[in-house]
Amino acid sequence: MSLSISVVLLLLILAVVFLRNGAMKISHALVCVLLGFLLAGTSMAPTLHNGLTATAGIVSSLNP
User: Fold this and answer.
1) Which GO terms describe its molecular function (predicted)?
2) pLDDT digits (tens, 9 = 90+) for 1-39
3) Which residue from 54, 12, 18, 16 is spatially nearest to 36, judged by alpha carbons?
4) How far is 35 from 37, CA to CA, in rounded Å?
5) Into how many domains does the chain fold?
6) 54: domain range?
């Protein structure tokens, strides 16, 4: 479990650096995909899913 969390943190830091750099390449996208898969396997997955679902519901209810 500790190895999984440290890998998730490392990939999160790499993803933030890549996004702030502004030069998203294929390797950067693969890091982001790996981060997503690893986050899905953690105990934070239900919280993230509920947060994204709530955000999508709010955005979809907005009228232009």
Assistant:
1) serine-type endopeptidase activity
2) 455 667 778 877 887 888 788 776 777 778 888 888 888
3) 12
4) 6
5) 1
6) 2-61
Residue carrying structure tokens 């790996």: 34
CA distance 13 to 15: 5
3-state helix, strand, coil in the chain (%, to 5): 80, 0, 20
CA 10, 44, 53, 40 torsion-angle sign: positive
Model pTM?
A: 0.56
Contact 11, 38 (CB under 8 A): yes
